[in-house]
Amino acid sequence: MPLVVGKDDASKNLPLIVELVDSGLIPVNKDDLGACSKKLAMPLEQLAPAHPSNFGNRDASDAWGRPLKNSPELIVLHETVISGPQTVAFFQANHPEDEHQASYHLLIDRDGSRLRIVPDEKRAYGAGMSAFGDFTQRTKPTSVGSINNIALHVSLVSPPDGRDDRDGHSGYTDAQYKTLAGQVLLWQASFGIPMTRVTTHAAVDRSHSRYDPRSFRWNRFDMHYRAAVAACGFSQFDNQQAGL
Ligand SMILES: [Zn+2]
User: Distance from the CA of 10 to the center of ligand 1, in angstroms?
Assistant: First the structure.
């Protein structure tokens, strides 16, 4: 349940600030994270940095100067639709206009390799018009709410038969699911994020135009996630059944 703070603001015609409750999960220290990454044989991150126009800072206050949480609390899954090289080229192009700015933190290619697009500490533009339940943040007076300020965005490169807007395609490789499961666990452990806050673009989109990742199968993810938890021992982040 989201926590509502600043109720008095309603009388001033300002939108309520809604924050996610404290999960109570303590982030894992860097040494243990490094050991986990080794046990999982995570592919090294290849650098493919986005042009600075396509990402920004995680904002510490909203459009009205009220303090906002701005550290990662949500993990959002996507697919690219276009090919990996086309995706990277798009993110590396200068996009001065708001509506063309876009990015993810990480891209996972068909062979399971990881491409780093935006550093975790920065705000990637992965889900412009979005909400997670009641949670959304408005960082410009004219903007619609978005979850980007507290999100980590990761995208799977779509298969060649997915380069269109059909409802589904042939899906993702086992290597992609394996890397994704390891990445999700490492992010959860780095920032104290429970499994209940691992979601999809389709689930958080409020523009009614995004429905990715198509043909994603949670059971294929879960198989690798359970193996990763067994290897690293971070079972406290998998609260899918129990909630917070
Ligand atoms: Zn998306």
Answer: 32
pLDDT tens for each residue of 97-113: 888 888 999 999 999 99
What spacing in Å lies between the alpha carbon of 126 and ligand 1's midpoint? 6
Residue whose token pair is 């135009």: 209
Three-state SS sequence of 22-55:
CCCCCCCCHHHHHHHHHHCCCCCEEECCCCHHHE
Span from the CA of 142 to the centroid of ligand 1 (angstroms): 22
pLDDT single digits (tens) 192-214: 999 999 999 999 999 999 999 99
Name the CATH architecture for the domain at 3-21+28-237: 3-Layer(aba) Sandwich (3.40)
pLDDT for position 103: 94
Q: Give residue 242's pLDDT.
A: 54
User: Which tokens go with 235?
Assistant: 């079972």
